[in-house]
Write a structure and sequence with these properties.
Shape of chain A: globular
Number of strands of chain A: 10
CATH class of the largest domain in chain B: Alpha Beta
Number of domains of chain A: 1
Distance between the termini of chain B: 49 Å
Order of helices and strands of chain A: HEHEHEHEHHEEEHHEHEHHE
Structural class of chain A: alpha/beta
CATH class of chain A: Alpha Beta
CATH architecture of the largest domain in chain B: 3-Layer(aba) Sandwich
CATH superfamily of the largest domain in chain B: Thiamin diphosphate (ThDP)-binding fold, Pyr/PP domains
Strand content of chain A: 15-25%
Helix content of chain B: 40-55%
Distance between the termini of chain A: 53 Å
Number of helices of chain B: 15
CATH topology of chain A: Rossmann fold
Radius of gyration of chain B: 21 Å
Chains: A alpha/beta (259), B alpha/beta (361), C mainly beta (76)
Structural class of chain B: alpha/beta
CATH architecture of chain A: 3-Layer(aba) Sandwich
Strand order of the largest sheet of chain A: 3-2-4-5-9-8-10
Order of helices and strands of chain B: EHEHHEHEHHEHEHEHEHEHEEHEEHEHEH
Largest sheet of chain B: 7 strands, mixed
Shape of chain B: globular
Largest sheet of chain A: 7 strands, mixed
Number of strands of chain B: 15
CATH topology of the largest domain in chain B: Rossmann fold
Radius of gyration of chain A: 19 Å
Oligomer: heterotrimer
């Protein structure tokens, strides 16, 4: 039997993975190796698989993913810095039959938008919050974030985060898990194939919770910022595993029954 | 003839929201307008019309809830008073910058800072000159009675949707708190989701309808050439608003040598001042701007040939007076009289001010 | 026993050369090309195509979704 040639394999009927059509044609504006791209894809794949494209409204933040609405081919609003969950609250309240989600970074959700985040979760707004935590302000050039871990170097903590002087990192996910309004709270990552698959399952679950009207579903994704961390993409993955994950433990923090 | 009731200004405007078919109210309590959200909560409009009422955690959250809800094409409103409206300025800039229609009510109290809970008109600059950052305008309507608190609600929404622009109803603590006879308009139906899609699917976030591009509500454009073009588009819109939407009222102006220019509660007091002045043989009239933006520059200018002087009356240290001086191009004396800190001018004080600042000046 | 064969197609001009795909490939199929694409990045390509099983690991971690994966069971 003759060996299969490449052109025999590369055929439409053999395709097992391709880009979801819910991406627009625009190239992502993120740096090489940035986890935002995978997180975007997972959200869009879940929307595609649940067949809710014409029934979903997203809210983009201020930060690196400020332009996410240019890449996601769904109806989206761009919020003021930190106000995404307030906007999502407004949308969901007048349009309860729509699926509503926010996609926010750590500066947006855990610094300037802490108040909105906590109150939205505490009211149990029936939305999904996707929270990308890379421990740094990427867009403005690598300044300290509320999630910057102790001793981590950033442009505004150039000698490492001194918690005596600069305060402690904020573990938002643990915090919102305490609130009665949240129904599903989990922390995941997207730097290995296994973790990507787990993250997708969690995002799917979060949208299922919204469908079941159970309250706020919150998924944190611990991600890399190789540019801000001043590492190559592969070095940043190793740094994330060695430093971020011991501080931000992965797993499900809260899981109400999903009937 | 609609239903006639004796109502507080704040309660009346809350009832008007329900009757105007509003879909969502998001607000945070603040004196002197907390009766609005209290009335709404006690009326349970979700049972009457399906209207949503939510008490937010702050004015910052409230205006952004309005921003979100209004992005979907649904009729959305918030109310506050001066310090709260200051907190909303960021949101208003974004809403204007993404051309989203909504209505905001400011029941003005005295400032700066916490100031006082008593009435004031010192937010004129904030309302009419931007308030937030960037080149934008709110359309600003100034009611002077409880009846107008009611009647301006459907008008405000008509303007908001006609121009896809935030509209402010600038009231004050006097109008908000006082009780008057008011005729309420009949209940208007809320639009159905399908009607909203039919009307606004070219811009609103209704969920990407199969066959159309995704709709995006944003105030951001990083390409300078495009952002400049957008700024000019807003400018052109404001020009049309200035040319077509000016509203004002003239009282006893035909033979007037002198006019008061005043809006809101000050304009009511000035009507008494006119009577006092006319008894003393002074021919005085009242020019009342009803739209503060667009401001009736041309209409005030047209009166200049007959006038010997103008006194603006505003519960501020003199804000609208700047626009009146621009309108009259300094061709007649224009002076300002106002009380501040929550004090309200008396009709007699105003007549005295006319005499000392204009006639004897 | 049927052997599983795979292949990937890289959208060369969209690749940003981050190399994450090469690190997760269990059979060392992918490598970075010595040439650069229109953006100036060395792009990922199948240096060792015979070894590909179509496991999708590369596509799963690719931040820019530039990899399409094909898989077929080779008739025994």
């Amino acid at each position: 039997m003759a060996e299969l040639k490449l052109e025999d394999i590369i055929k439409e009927e053999n395709k097992v993975f391709s880009k979801t059509p819910l991406f627009t044609d625009k190239p992502l504006s993120y740096c090489p190796g940035c986890g935002h791209g995978v997180a975007h894809r997972l959200v869009l794949e879940v929307i595609e698989e649940m067949n809710i494209t014409d029934n979903v409204i997203g809210v983009a933040p201020v930060g690196c993913s400020v332009l996410s609405y240019e890449f996601m081919n769904i109806d989206m609003a761009e919020a003021a810095h930190g106000r995404a969950t307030a906007m999502a609250t407004g949308i969901k309240r007048v349009y309860p039959e729509k699926f509503v989600f926010t996609y926010q970074g750590d500066g947006d959700l855990a610094a300037i938008g802490t108040g909105e985040t906590i109150h939205t979760c505490n009211r149990g707004e029936n939305i999904v919050i996707i929270f990308i935590n890379n421990g740094i302000y990427g867009m403005t050039g690598g300044q300290m974030a509320p999630t910057t871990i102790p001793a981590m170097k950033t442009s505004t903590s150039p000698y490492g985060r001194d918690t005596q002087m600069m305060g402690n990192p904020l573990k938002m996910t643990e915090l919102v898990a305490q609130l009665d309004g949240t129904c599903f709270v989990a922390r995941h990552a997207v730097h290995t194939p296994v973790l990507v698959r787990k993250t997708k399952k969690a995002i799917r679950k979060a949208f299922e919770y919204q469908k079941a009207k159970k309250g706020t579903a919150f998924v944190e994704i611990v991600s890399n910022c190789n540019s801000g961390w001043k590492l190559t993409p592969l070095q940043s993955i190793k740094w994330l595993e060695d430093n971020m994950l011991p501080y931000y433990n992965l797993g499900t923090l809260k899981e109400d029954p999903l009937d | 003839m609609g239903e006639i009731k004796l109502m507080k200004g704040n309660e009346a405007i809350a009832e008007a929201f329900i009757r105007a078919g509003v879909d969502g109210y998001f607000g945070y309590p603040i004196t002197p307008q907390s009766e609005i959200i209290e009335y709404l909560m006690s009326e349970e409009p979700h049972k009457r019309t399906g209207m949503v009422v939510l008490q937010a955690e702050s004015e910052v959250a409230a205006i952004n809830m309005v921003y979100g809800a209004a992005c979907t094409g649904k009729k959305t409103v918030t109310t506050s008073s001066s310090p709260g409206v200051s907190l909303m300025q960021e949101g208003l800039s974004y809403i204007a910058g993404s051309e989203v229609p909504c209505v905001v009510v400011n029941v003005v109290r005295g400032g700066p800072g916490l100031g006082t809970i008593q009435p004031s008109q010192a937010d004129y600059f904030q309302s009419t000159k931007g308030g937030g950052h960037g080149d934008y305008h709110l359309i600003v309507l100034a009611p002077s009675s409880v009846q107008e608190m009611v009647d301006f609600v459907p008008w405000a929404f008509d303007l908001a949707y006609k121009y896809r622009n935030p509209v402010m109803i600038q009231s004050d603590g006097v109008i908000g708190q006082m009780m008057e006879k008011v005729e309420l308009f009949e209940q208007m139906p809320r639009l159905t989701n399908q009607e909203i899609k039919d009307k606004y699917d070219d811009w609103a976030l209704t969920g990407r309808t199969p066959g159309r591009e995704h709709n995006v509500i944003t105030s951001l454009d990083l390409v300078p050439e495009r952002q400049e073009k957008f700024n000019h588009k807003l400018e052109a819109k404001y020009k049309i608003i200035e040319q077509t939407e000016v509203k004002y009222e003239k009282i006893m102006c035909d033979d007037a040598d002198y006019i008061f220019v005043a809006y809101g509660s000050s304009s009511r007091i000035c009507q008494k001042s006119i009577a006092i002045a006319r008894e003393q043989g002074l021919k005085v009239g009242l020019f009342r701007p009803i739209t503060l933006y667009p401001f009736p520059y041309k209409e005030i200018m047209e009166m200049v040939p007959q006038l010997k002087g103008v006194l603006t009356v505003e519960m501020s240290l003199g804000q609208m007076v700047e626009d009146v001086r621009l309108a009259t191009e300094f061709k007649v004396p224009v002076e300002h009289y106002g009380r501040v800190g929550g004090m309200i001018p008396t009709p007699e004080e105003i007549v005295d001010a006319l005499k000392t600042k204009i006639i004897g000046g | 026993m049927a052997k599983v064969r795979g292949a990937v197609v890289v959208n060369i001009d969209r690749c940003k050369g981050c190399e994450l795909c090469t690190a997760v490939c269990p059979t060392n199929v992918l490598a970075m090309h010595e040439k650069v694409n229109v953006k100036g990045y060395h792009y990922s390509y199948m240096a060792n195509p015979e070894a590909c099983t179509g496991c999708m690991n590369c596509a799963t971690v690719c931040p820019d979704t530039v990899i399409t994966v094909y898989r077929v069971k080779e008739p025994s």
